[in-house]
Structure formats: structure tokens, C-alpha cells
Write a structure and sequence with these properties.
4-stranded antiparallel beta sheet, single chain, about 220 residues, globular
Length: about 220
């Protein structure tokens, strides 16, 4: 499928054929392309839990407020992140880079992350977001549907998958053969509310400039 059309057609699908399975080759392709996502300093914070066991799926469904897609979808991923990945043998993230690049980036990475707990978490979340979008767009390009889920009890899910203490759960993602079309798109906000040129215009600044420059000032911007 054309990349532009894939992006336009991707929707969050809630209902799947529970009898359908992806082939091993399809599943591996999906994961391979997911892992092509970018990450800060190439740290690759993401950790994917590919849930196959029906009993584990059933427990996760309960933790996800009984959403049927958790058990019915062909694939269920718990998208996690290693928040401390940046300090775990960081040389391996740049092992194929030229030596001068390694010698520059490794100390820079340490200085960037050290002692900045919120930044570490933010970067982990950003990285998993890139990976999740890769999964969903790849699934659509392969002719499958997907859905990101944040409706779950994170503490319960963490217990079920034995989440390490220095990891977090970003979201769940289901992939499979949809049985019920997604709702029509409910509508986009106008771009004027979403896209800004060069920065935000504050109301107080607007009022000040209007007073100083006269009522015709903003008409010329």
C-alpha cells in the first residue's frame, strides 16, 4: 500500500477475527519494521512483550477492563520501555559507528541523561511512541488492522508480565484481521488551532502589541 494512503487509512479497530493468525513470516516482518523506529542516541529503549499464551491473554483482558480485542486479536504486544537503557553497556548502541563518533557520543549520552529522571522517562515514552506507530502503519500496509490501548490497570499488567522495576509500560497494541469497520473519522480540529508558525502568540502579548501598534497591526501578519 502507498505510504500516504496507509497513513490516511490507519484506524483503531476494536473487533477482530479470533480464528485468524498471522504467518511466522508476517509476524517477523512486522517486528523487524517496528524495530526500525528512531530513538534518542540510538538507545532503543523499547521492550516488546509478544503475548502468545491464552491464559496470559485472558488475565491481561481482565486487567484491560474486559476489552475483547485483547484476547481476539491475532497479536497482542505490551509495549514497554527500559528507562535506564542509556546506562546499560551504552557502547553497544554505537558499535558499528566510526571510532571518533563513538568517542564523541558516548560521553555526550551520559551527560545528557545522568541525574535527569524526568528526561529519562520522557525519552523512553517518546521512543516507544515511534515504535508503536511503526507497528500500526506496518500492520495496515500488510492488510491488517491495529489498535493502541491505554485503557488498562498498569499495576496489574506489570504484575502479569513481571515488569522489571526500571521499566515502564507505554501501551498495549493489538493487530489482526478486523471484523467490524472502524467508526467514520469523527473530525479533525482546524489546522489553525493545531499548527503555529515560529511560536505561540500569547494573549497578553497580542493585547500589548495591538495597543502599541494600533488596530491594523495584526492584519498585516
Amino acid at each position: 500500500m502507498d505510504t500516504f494512503q496507509t497513513i490516511r487509512d490507519r484506524r483503531s479497530t476494536k473487533h477482530y477475527d479470533p480464528r485468524h493468525t498471522l504467518s511466522d513470516a508476517e509476524e517477523q516482518l512486522l517486528i523487524d519494521l517496528a524495530l526500525e523506529a528512531p530513538s534518542s542516541f540510538n538507545v532503543q529503549h523499547w521492550r516488546l512483550v509478544n503475548v502468545k499464551n491464552p491464559e496470559v491473554r485472558a488475565r491481561l483482558r481482565e486487567a484491560a477492563f474486559d476489552q475483547e480485542q485483547v484476547t481476539d486479536a491475532s497479536l497482542l504486544f505490551v509495549v514497554c520501555a527500559d528507562v535506564k537503557a542509556w546506562r546499560k553497556d551504552p557502547a553497544r548502541y554505537w558499535r558499528n559507528a566510526p571510532l571518533n563518533v563513538q568517542n564523541t557520543l558516548l560521553p555526550m549520552m551520559h551527560a545528557f541523561y545522568e541525574g535527569k529522571e524526568q528526561l529519562q522517562r520522557d525519552e523512553a515514552i517518546r521512543s516507544t511512541g515511534f515504535l508503536a506507530q511503526n507497528i500500526m502503519l506496518t500492520a495496515k500496509a500488510m492488510g491488517y488492522e491495529s489498535c493502541p490501548l491505554i485503557g488498562f490497570d498498569p499495576e496489574a499488567v506489570a504484575r502479569i508480565i513481571d515488569l522489571p522495576e526500571d521499566h515502564l509500560i507505554s501501551m498495549l497494541i493489538t493487530v489482526g484481521k478486523g471484523t467490524v469497520p472502524a467508526w467514520p473519522k469523527p473530525g479533525h480540529l482546524d489546522q489553525s488551532e493545531l499548527v503555529f508558525r515560529d511560536g505561540f502568540v500569547r494573549k497578553d502579548l497580542t493585547e500589548t502589541r495591538s495597543t502599541v501598534n494600533g488596530p491594523g497591526f495584526w492584519a498585516s501578519i
